Amino acid sequence: MKNYINQNQERFLDELSKFLAFKSISADSAFKSECLECADYLVEFFNSIDMDTQLIPTKGIPVVYAEKIIDENFPTVLIYGHYDVQPAFKEDGWDSDPFDMVIKNKKIYARGAADDKGQVFMHMKVLEFMSQNNSWPLNIKVFLEGEEEVGSTNLEDFILENKSLLESDFILISDTSIISNSQPSITAGVRGMTAMELTVKGPKVDVHSGVYGGIMDNPINVLSHIIAKVKDSDGRILIPGFYDDVIEYNESQRAQFQEVFSKMPSKDDLCSEFGLNDLLAEPGFSPYEGGSIRPTFDVVGITGGYQGEGMKIIIPNQASAKFTFRLVANQDPKKVQKQIVDYINSIAPKTLTLEFDFSENSGAAYATNLDSVYYKVAAKAMEDSFGTKCLPVMCGGSIPVASMLKKHLNKETIFLGFGLEEDNIHSPNESYGIFNMNIGIETIFNYLNSIASQSN
Question: How far apart are CA 22 and CA 16, in angstroms?
Fold first, then answer.
């Protein structure tokens, strides 16, 4: 595989440039035609390497599906990725056109370079190699969605309608990162999330705070009171029953995570970089544990009252705040949502009306079984490629598709991503290292062959 990569490097970069040129921005309907053109491009590619391919409609942007079934007795991998990207415009702060790939300092610069087209491309080249050599070590199924960047709106319906089509032994996703190019890692778990907006409604219209202050409750005061009682000063959430299902890791497991945290920027470095006095730490846990294996509550937006220059002496008619609760493995978003509503209703005064609006983007956490053969073989493949021990990383972010696939297909998911924190995903000047692309192709190829050998 290394020789194939080296011999075809220029061609790979040229083909990746064409893939990245599609403005497949799912968030803006003005770019739907570009999304469809990108999907057609993928269908053409998979057809060209002798995979049975179809473009499957959804209520939004279609799913690209391809398969190569060699033998029903062989193991089957289901590879997931997405071909849509975040919005990007040169005036956002890009050094160049975000859809015109630039190579600089051995990095590929373009929107989607790391998230997720560049990482999908690695799988495309692995499958191309298998096809050219007529050497398929296992059954391959691929499905690429076009709406991941808008919350995978139609993905659950697609999975439910195509469960037999998606049947496999394990799932492989490359949409994550490693600690560094000298320290390989595998994302072993991601947090879930439930997001909501709470609106506190008072008088029908804004009223004079002198005339009605002390007579009518103030929605901003009530909202502030509620927010202050959701968690304490140590960051521990005060909602009754909230921690009932939270996994408590043993000392051995926490020591393994600490080995990962020791590779991360120090507390002093983070405080210096972000201009902070100190980091938050729940009692008994380090800041990095708080950002990965513990649930959290954050206010992500708040509004109410007069926002213009000067003062407007009123009691506003309403105030609202947007919250996110990051959840960990075993926490059920629906159960947590009920706990949130019950608790807020119990602490709020009865003088005003509360409205709860939960986002459809809520999803459960996912944790990989570190004792599974699929994880162990993946860690070994990473170690062989990088020449050093691979570490499991618990990620503080959320990948809703993982819990969705687990819920409906009940198969283990392995996150075999090769991005870096410095890749600026979702930001101007997104990049992906050529080294990362190449070692990703090599590792994925070796991983799939090793899984096939284990099964045989």
Answer: 11
Q: What is the pLDDT of residue 336?
A: 97
All structural domains of the chain: 2-190+365-455 (3.40.630.10), 192-246+295-358 (3.30.70.360)
Other C-beta atoms lying within 10 Å of the C-beta of residue 362: 21
The strand pairing partners of 77, in sequence order, are 140, 170
Find where tokens 């809703």 sit. 400
Q: What residue has token string 């992906």? A: 432
Over the stretch 189-234, which tens digit does the pLDDT of each residue have?
A: 899 999 999 999 999 999 999 999 999 999 999 999 999 999 999 8
The Cα–Cα gap between 236 and 230 comes to 9
CA distance 180 to 201: 49
Secondary structure (3-state) at 424: coil
How far CA 104 is from CA of 100, 366, 381, 392, 429, in Å, comes to 13, 36, 29, 31, 11
Query: Could you tell me the pTM of the whole model?
Result: 0.85
- Please name the residues in contact with 122: beta carbons below 8 A apart, sequence gap of 6 or more: 174, 418, 437, 440, 441, 444
pLDDT cut 90: percent of the chain above it: 86
Name the amino acid, one letter, at 424: N
Average pLDDT, the chain: 95
d(CA 112, CA 109): 9
